[in-house]
C-alpha cells in the first residue's frame, strides 16, 4: 500500500510539472522565481513572491480540489 501511495504522489508531481511547463513563455518569464499553485485541471490559483504569501492566498480561498505548487524556474521549492 505504501508503495502505491508514493507512486501516486510522484505521478501527481509529474502531472503538476507538466502543467506548469505548458504555461505561456511570457508568463513564465514575467514570474521567474515566484511561487505558483495550479490545479490539475490547469487553472492557476495564485502566483506570489514568497511561499508564505502563496500559502496565505490559498488559505483565503475556498479551494475544493487538489493543486500543485512550484517555484517557477527552480527544481525545488526550497532548500534547507
Mean pLDDT: 90
Would you tell me the structural class of the helices and strands? alpha+beta
Strand order across the largest sheet: 2-1-3
- Overall 3D form: globular
Question: In terms of per-residue confidence, which ranges show pLDDT below 50 for 5 or more consecutive residues?
Answer: none
Number of separate helices = 3
Rounded to the nearest angstrom, the distance between the terminal CA atoms is 30 Å
Give helix % range. Answer: 40-55%
User: What fraction strand?
Assistant: 15-25%
- What letter string, H or E per element, gives the SSE order? HHEEHE
| Total beta strands | 3
Q: Tell me about the biggest sheet?
A: 3 strands, antiparallel
Over all CA atoms, what is the radius of gyration? 13 Å
Please provide a written account of the structure.
With about 80 residues, the protein is an alpha+beta fold. The protein is built from three helices and three strands. The chain has helices at about 1-20, 25-30, 50-60, and strands spanning about 35-40, 45-50, 65-70. The chain has a three-stranded antiparallel sheet with strand order 2-1-3, with helices on both faces. Strand 1 (about 35-40) and strand 2 (about 45-50) form a beta hairpin. The longest helix has 20 residues, at about 1-20. It is globular, with a radius of gyration of 13 Å. The model has no long low-confidence stretch (mean pLDDT about 90).
Amino acid at each position: 500500500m505504501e508503495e502505491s501511495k508514493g507512486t501516486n504522489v510522484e505521478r501527481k508531481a509529474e502531472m503538476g510539472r507538466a502543467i506548469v511547463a505548458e504555461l505561456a513563455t511570457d508568463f513564465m518569464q514575467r514570474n521567474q522565481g515566484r511561487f505558483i499553485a495550479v490545479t490539475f485541471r490547469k487553472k492557476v490559483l495564485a502566483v506570489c513572491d514568497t511561499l508564505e504569501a502563496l500559502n496565505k492566498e490559498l488559505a483565503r480561498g475556498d479551494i475544493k480540489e487538489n493543486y500543485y505548487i512550484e517555484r517557477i524556474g527552480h527544481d525545488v521549492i526550497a532548500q534547507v
